[in-house]
Amino acid sequence: NAGVTQTPKFRVLKTGQSMTLLCAQDMNHEYMYWYRQDPGMGLRLIHYSVGEGTTAKGEVPDGYNVSRLKKQNFLLGLESAAPSQTSVYFCASSFEVGELFFGEGSRLTVL
Amino acid sequence: AQSVTQPDIHITVSEGASLELRCNYSYGATPYLFWYVQSPGQGLQLLLKYFSGDTLVQGIKGFEAEFKRSQSSFNLRKPSVHWSDAAEYFCAVGARGSTLGRLYFGRGTQLTVWP
After folding, report:
1. For a Cys staple, B17 with which of A55, A69, B13, B89, CB 3.0–4.6 Å?
2. Mean pLDDT for the stretch of residues B93-115
3. CB–CB contact A4 B45 (8 Å)
4. Facing residue for A97 by CB, picked from B41, B101, B105
5. With an 8 Å Cβ cutoff, are A105 and B41 in contact?
6. How far apart are CA B12 and CA A78, in angstroms?
7. Tens digits of residue pLDDT in B15-73
8. Buried residues in B72-93 as b, exposed as e (16+ CB within 10 A)
9. Cα separation of B65 and B88, whole Å?
10. A29: closest chain B residue by CA
């Protein structure tokens, strides 16, 4: 009964370092999303995927890349981290409109 | 484009008091509407949703919301708040006919419950 699992849950990076956040879902959902949450800003969509092998840009895609090589996994990459990318990142998946299932979040700090 | 406004950033109520959280949306047609709740350190959980039909929808944990087309609103209510309801609440809108499933979220309302 895992649902949506994000790893790692916490990470501290130095400016310029790279990292990958992994999202895995076991519900056979077609759609997967990466959001970032910042105080007072709500959730903003970074990238999303409507199926294996497909990705698309959301509202705030700059500085991030994604890949969906397997249906159950959606990776979010930061090639050169910046302090502005300090945030809490949420992965979500859905089978249809609105029924988003969220992971517990990954807190990233960039020094 | 769709957008969601939650006018109240922070609301404080006493335990046992009634609650209403406001949500207004901007969309050219009737959208899909949702309320999510986020407890500290957790992801978001769906409270309730409106797709069509009865404009008063019931959700989990005793919450309800009413869709008012004329006011472009989807306010969340609870008759008697419990201390465990303290959390952040997000209203979201999705586009009818969209195959993408993506949602637009409001900025959230933080609820504090006094004992």
Report:
1. B13
2. 83
3. no
4. B101
5. yes
6. 38
7. 999 999 999 998 877 788 999 999 988 889 999 999 888 999 999 999 999 999 999 99
8. ebbbbebeebeeebbbbbbbbb
9. 16
10. B101
Number of other CB atoms surrounding residue A81 within 10 Å: 21
**Bridge pairing between strands B10-14 and B109-114:** parallel
Residue A1: per-residue pLDDT: 61
User: What backbone torsions phi and psi does residue B75 show, to the nearest 5 degrees?
Assistant: -85, 140
Using CA atoms, how far apart are residues A31 and A94, in angstroms rounded to an integer?
A: 5
Q: Which residues contact residue B60 at a Cβ distance below 8 angstroms, ignoring those fewer than 6 apart?
A: B46, B47, B48
SS3 A57: strand
Residues of chain B with C-beta less than 8 angstroms from the C-beta of A103:
43
Tokens of B45: 């959980």
* Residue with the two structure tokens 């004992």: B115
